[in-house]
Amino acid sequence: MAMRKILSIVQDADIYRSSVINLQASENVISPNVRRALASDFASRYSHKENGVNDYGGTKYAEELEESVNELASEVFNFKYADAKPLSGHVAAETVLAALVKRGESIMKIPERNGGYQGYLNGYLPSLMGFRSYDIPMKPDQAIDFESFEKTIDYIRPKVVILGQSVFVKSYDIPKVRELCNSVGSMLLYDASHVMGLIAGGTFQKDIGLCDVVFGSTHKTFFGPQGGIILTNEAEVFDRIEKKITWITMDNFNISRMAGVGVALEETKKFGREYASRVVKNAKDLAKELDGKLPIKYSPWFTESHQVLIDEEGLKKDGYDTIKFSEDLEKNGIIVDRIGRIGTAEITRMGVDDVQPIADMIKDAYIGKDVKERVNKFVSNMKMRYYES
Ligand SMILES: *Cc1c(COP(=O)(O)O)cnc(C)c1O
Asked: According to its record, what are the GO cellular component terms (predicted)?
C-alpha cells in the first residue's frame, strides 16, 4: 500500500471533523487559542523544577507557565492546591492512587455495570499497583444504595472510596458518603473526568469541595486538550501526590499541553458558567425530544449532566443495538459512541442552543431516512464560541 503523506491525513481529519455533528460524550472541541498553545515551541521542551532547582536550562517561561496554570486551576475549581501536570485522566488517577493506597490495601469504586470506570476494575490499575478493588453497592437508577454501602464499607474498610463514572447522569449525595468514609477512616476521592467542565461551571456536584481529592480529564466537558488535573485542599495530601509524579507516573509533562489547559482555564473563567448550564439544558431538552421515538433512560428527569443515555434493551426491540445505532448515525454525519451515550458538550461549544433540529435528524436516521443533506446544512451554521477571538 502506498503510504499517504501524514500531513494530508491530518488535514483530512480536520476537514472531516468539521463536517459532522459530534455528540460524543467524552469529547469536545478546542479553541484556536488552545491550538496555538499546543503547537508552540513548548511542545519540545523540558522543565523539572523541584526544591527550587530546575534540571534544565532556558526554562524561565516554562516555570512561569506551570505556576500560572496551577494557580488559575486552583482559582477556577476553588481548591487550594492544583496540579495540571498529569498527561491524562488515567495518569491523574494512577498518581493519586500511588500516593494514597499501598500494596495490599483496598479501594471501593462505582461498578462498571453502573457506569464506573474500567481502570478501577481488578485486572487494571488494582493489579498493576497491587491493591484490591470492591464495588460500591448501587441501585438501578444510578444512585448509591446507602443501606448496603454502610455495611460493606464497614466490612471492607477501604483506604479510599472513589466516586465518579464514565456513564454519568447524576450527582451523588456527597455529605452522606463523606460521613460513611469518616466512620471507617477512608479518604473520599472523586474522578470528575467526564464532568470537569460542568463542575468548573458550577452546574454539577456543587458540594465537590467535601472530597479529599478531585481529579480527572481536561478534555471531556472541560475546554482543554487531552490531559489530566488533580485538585485538593489538603497540603499534606498534595505533597504526597506531588512526590508520585516525576519519574514515577511520568517524566515530562508536555509543556505545550499544559499551556493549552491554561488557555482553557482562562476561557472557563470567563465563559464556564454560561457554557455549563447550556450543556445541561441541551442534554435535558435533547432527551425530552428523543423520548418516545427512541428508548431514553431515566424518564422524566433523564439527566443532570451532559449525557443522554440510550436504553439498549429498548433498542433491541427496534432491531438495533448501540453499535448499529452509532454506525447508522455515522453514515449520516452524526457521531455518537458505540456504548449508548449521547453528549451535548461539543454542540454547545459550537453554538447550539436549540437541539430540536438535531433530535429530528436523529429520529429520522433511526427509522432509516437519509439525513446527510440536513446535517451538512446544520453544520454550516455552527460556529465556535466561548473563547477570545
Ligand atoms: C475517560 C475517563 C478516564 C480516563 O481519562 P483519560 O483522560 O482518557 O486518561 C478516567 N476516569 C473516568 C471516569 C473516565 O470517564
From this structure: cytoplasm
86 cis-preceded (ω within 30 degrees of 0): no
- What distance in Å separates the CA atoms of residue 341 and residue 355, rounded to the nearest whole number? 16
Residue type, 372: K
Check: CB of residue 119 under 8 Å from CB of residue 125: yes
Instruction: Read off the CATH number of the domain in which 168 is found.
Output: 3.40.640.10
How large is the average pLDDT for residues 201-226? 98
Rounded-to-5 percentages of helix, strand, coil across the chain: 45, 15, 40
pLDDT attached to residue 140: 85
Q: Residue 52 — pLDDT band, cuts 50, 70, 90? A: confident
Residue that is last in its domain, among 202, 232, 266: 266
- 26 CA to middle of ligand 1, Å? 8
Range of the structural domain that residue 192 is part of: 33-266
Q: Do 66 and 82 share a structural domain?
A: yes
pLDDT over 80 at 349, yes or no: yes
Best residue among 217, 218, 249 to mutate for probing ligand 1, ranked by most atoms within 8 Å of CB:
217
End-to-end CA distance of the chain: 42
- Phi (first) and psi of residue 222, to 5 degrees: -80, 160
Domain CATH number, residue 310? 3.90.1150.10
Residues 260 and 224: beta-carbon distance below 8 Å:
yes
- Of all residues in the chain, what percent carry a pLDDT higher than 70? 100
* 102 shares a domain with 197: yes
Interval between CA 215 and ligand 1 midpoint (Å): 10
Ligand 1 centre from 174 Cα, in Å? 21
CA-to-CA distance for 12 and 197, rounded, in angstroms? 29
Residue with cell 488533580: 230
